[in-house]
């Protein structure tokens, strides 16, 4: 935990950003079946270059999954979101994360349970999300959406103690991450509508 050194994504790796979510999940499955723990760094390794989308997406999906009951998980995902989305907002392509965060992991014994959630979710996503209207999911959306995700990441520790709210927060992050991963402009518009709807509901509850 005291390590300050960081890990940068290798620039020469093949990118999975344009691939399907099921392909990324299959690569994770192979590594998990080999006994590896599920960590942010593992996601980055299997995603390859320009892995910002997947490195936001997979941890957010973990919070949406039944594994969200693991204590401290939403908080760690919030920290990951702040650091990754912060670099997206600054226009960085190659990610840097502190080693202590990149190596934080879910033990391999939970790997099968995670895969049982991710595999069907990936198949549904791949049927819905695809590259289209890419201008809508371009640099402006990437940066403004990243700022929203940073704000969500900041409140994730609070959401951890309020039932069900961490799932909503993770859903905002996951939908944004998916839109930039597959460059789906229609999904980007759906994300904007989703965020506005949550803000409206929150406003009505609070005021």
């Amino acid at each position: 935990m005291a390590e300050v050194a960081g890990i940068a994504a290798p620039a020469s790796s093949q990118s999975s950003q344009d691939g399907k979510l099921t392909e990324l999940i299959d690569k994770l499955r192979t590594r998990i079946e080999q006994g590896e723990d599920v960590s942010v760094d593992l996601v980055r390794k299997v995603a390859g270059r320009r892995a910002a989308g997947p490195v936001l997406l997979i941890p957010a999906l973990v919070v949406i999954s039944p594994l969200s009951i693991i204590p401290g998980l939403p908080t760690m995902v919030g920290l990951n979101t702040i650091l990754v989305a912060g670099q997206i907002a600054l226009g960085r392509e190659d990610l840097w994360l502190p080693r202590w965060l990149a190596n934080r992991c879910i033990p391999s014994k939970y790997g099968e349970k995670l895969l049982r959630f991710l595999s069907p979710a990936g198949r549904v996503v791949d049927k819905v999300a695809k590259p289209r209207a890419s201008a809508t999911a371009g640099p402006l959306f990437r940066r403004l959406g990243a700022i929203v995700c940073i704000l969500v990441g900041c409140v994730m520790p609070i959401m951890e103690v309020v039932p069900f709210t961490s799932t909503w927060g993770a859903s905002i992050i996951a939908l944004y991450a998916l839109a930039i991963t597959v460059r789906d402009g229609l999904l980007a518009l759906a994300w904007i509508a989703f965020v506005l709807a949550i803000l409206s509901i929150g406003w009505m509850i609070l005021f």
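Residues 59 and 98 are 16 Å apart (CA to CA). Residues 1-5, 9-18 have pLDDT under 50 and may be disordered.
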